Automatic annotation (TrEMBL):
The keyword Amino-acid biosynthesis does not apply. Residues 1-24 form the signal peptide. It comes from the Bacteria. Residues 23-67 are annotated as: Disordered. Keywords: Signal. It comes from Gordonia amicalis. PROSITE patterns: PROKAR_LIPOPROTEIN (PS51257), RECOMBINASES_2 (PS00398). This is DUF3558 family protein. InterPro entries: DUF3558 (IPR024520), Recombinase_CS (IPR006118). Residues 26-41 have a biased composition (Low complexity).
């Protein structure tokens, strides 16, 4: 719309100059070429060409904050697995709430409680050389870290920031893949039980997460 206003302004200015000319023949107002270059499209597929299950509005959903692993939870976690864990496939949402976020992944709500959710997201380790130890130190404040576990020969961090919440983290390339379940309500499962469910989900998705 601003470009249209500019074109109209130039055209009107040219017309006024013609009408004020004292000598010579009137000349046409200079034409302003319209740009024929289309706006770049926003990426809607993962590195394997699989389409996201929602429309991505962010040009930098994939960015230098989360490009340490090509793993994309939103396209690689099957609907069958989501149903197996009692989640609503139709509730899928991008974890990114703004452009250029570190977290790249998806969340789902539970069928038995739409306030409770599971999410899995990818974010770069900073610095990557410090690996999971660096991740644990960086997130020391406010997190209760439990003993690490091992799944299929890979180290997995286990932590919680509140009752009924559990997060497990596995390394993928120079990134961390973070799986979190948050249960709310008075009758929510214990944190120990929530961590067991997170572990089961990580075990189910780990074969698709590159090391």
């Amino acid at each position: 719309m601003n470009r249209t206003v500019l074109v109209l302004a130039v055209a009107l200015l040219g017309a006024s100059l013609v009408s004020c000319t004292a000598h010579g023949e009137p000349s046409a107002a200079p034409s302003v070429p319209q740009s024929s270059v289309a706006a770049p499209s926003i990426r809607q597929t993962d590195d394997e060409g699989r389409t996201l299950p929602f429309e991505n509005p962010f040009p930098n959903r994939w960015s230098t904050n989360n490009d340490g692993s090509a793993y994309e939870p939103c396209t690689q976690i099957s609907e069958a697995l989501i149903r197996e864990f009692g989640l609503d496939p139709q509730s899928i949402e991008d974890v990114a709430a703004s452009d250029f976020q570190t977290a790249r992944g998806c969340s789902w709500t539970f069928n038995d409680d739409g306030r409770s959710s599971l999410s899995q997201a990818v974010g770069n380790l900073t610095p990557a050389a410090q690996g999971l130890d660096g991740y644990k130190r960086f997130n020391a404040a406010g997190t209760t870290w439990y003993p690490d576990i091992e799944i299929d020969g890979r180290r997995v961090l286990v932590g919680s920031i509140a009752s009924g919440e559990c997060t497990q983290i596995v390394r993928s390339g120079d990134a961390a893949v973070v799986t979190t379940i948050t249960r709310v309500g008075f009758d929510r499962p214990s944190t120990v039980d929530v961590c067991r469910t997170v572990e089961q989900f990580v075990r189910s998705t780990l074969p698709g997460i590159p090391s």
